Amino acid sequence: MSKLVIISYELPIILEPARDKSYLLTPVSHARTSGLENFHKEQKTVWFGRPGISRGDISADDRNKLSKAYEKENCYPVFLGKKEHERFLDGFSNRTIWPLFHYFTQNAVYREDYWKAYEKVNRSYAEEVLPHLKAGDRIWIHDYHLMLLPRMIREKSWPIRQPLVCRTWFT
Fold first, then answer.
1. Which residue of 106, 135, 153, 163 shows the fewest CB atoms closer than 10 Å?
2. Residues contacting residue 34 through CB under 8 Å, at least 6 positions apart
3. Are 154 and 130 in contact, with CB atoms under 8 Å apart?
4. Distance of CA 108 to the CA centre of its chain
């Protein structure tokens, strides 16, 4: 049975530790995820995105616990390092792509370290997503943060005989 795989920069929920060692679920009210939550709740979907915490801010054991808690919500976190996240989001995504896509070309900043972080983060998403894909899955890649991801998924998913459907929507 195929599923819808939603991939966005951020997950639609934040899980925060509670006193009883469980996690409190808090929906994210954000433009990047708004409107997609209903698909996630009502359809057979899995969602990949950043959990709002950097890889170095919690131990590997806590990352595993958090990942298991997210999995109960059909979500899979992509943990990024703090510096790579800054160069990816504040750097290439917001200082290069955003101005270009919004006709502020004079404000676009081009730096090789931003580009390398953008590539690395897109590759990190691909590595997290690929083990979960099966033939017939539909993939929804949301926003310009992950424009390299469709190609990366297609290049690595050749053993799947049926073609994967990749769509990217930009907001």
1. 106
2. none
3. no
4. 23
The two structure tokens encoding residue 134 = 């099966």
CA nearest 141: which of 1, 3, 9? Answer: 9
Run of H or E including 164:
none
- The CATH number of whichever domain residue 63 belongs to comes to 3.40.50.2000
Q: Specify if 90 maps to a domain.
A: no
Q: Indicate whether 32 belongs to any domain.
A: yes
**DSSP structure string for 16-39:** EE-TTSSEEEEE---TTTTTTHHH
Does residue 106 belong to any structural domain of this protein?
A: no
Residues β-bridged to residue 4: 45, 138
Residue type, 145: H
Measured in degrees and rounded to the nearest 5, phi and psi for residue 52 equal 90, 5
- Identify whether 151 is part of a domain: yes
